[in-house]
Design a protein that fits this description.
Length: about 110
């Protein structure tokens, strides 16, 4: 089973685990998405354990976004730049009908899970 999650402080209120876990279940994907509440002084320790624990990916929220960016390896930096570029472009367009481009981040996540 793959493990994903959101890391931040605080994150107990996040709806992300419920949404992602429902999607995983509906799609028959063997994965779980949790909320990892990490106070800023413990962030470096938490990040050092991500790879060792085999965590497949993390969504990063406040107050950790800037700090986490400094720890990403080159492949993740390229992936982030690609997704960020597509997202900025998509957000600048009015959405009047379903657009397959809007599903790129979800499809990429599914590819990473499989």
């Amino acid at each position: 089973m793959k493990v994903f999650g959101v890391i931040g402080y605080p994150v107990r209120h996040s709806l992300s685990p419920a949404m992602h876990n429902a999607a995983f279940q509906a799609l028959g994907i063997s994965a779980v998405y949790g909320a990892f509440e990490v106070p800023p002084p413990l962030l470096a320790e938490a990040l050092s354990g991500v790879k060792a624990l085999g965590i497949g990916g993390l969504s990063v929220t406040v107050p950790h976004k800037e700090t986490v960016m400094a720890h990403l390896d080159e492949n993740y930096q390229r992936f982030r730049a690609l997704v960020a570029g597509l997202t900025e472009e998509q957000m600048s367009k009015p959405v009047t009908a379903p657009n397959p481009e809007n599903f790129f981040p979800a499809l990429t996540l599914l590819e990473l899970v499989e």
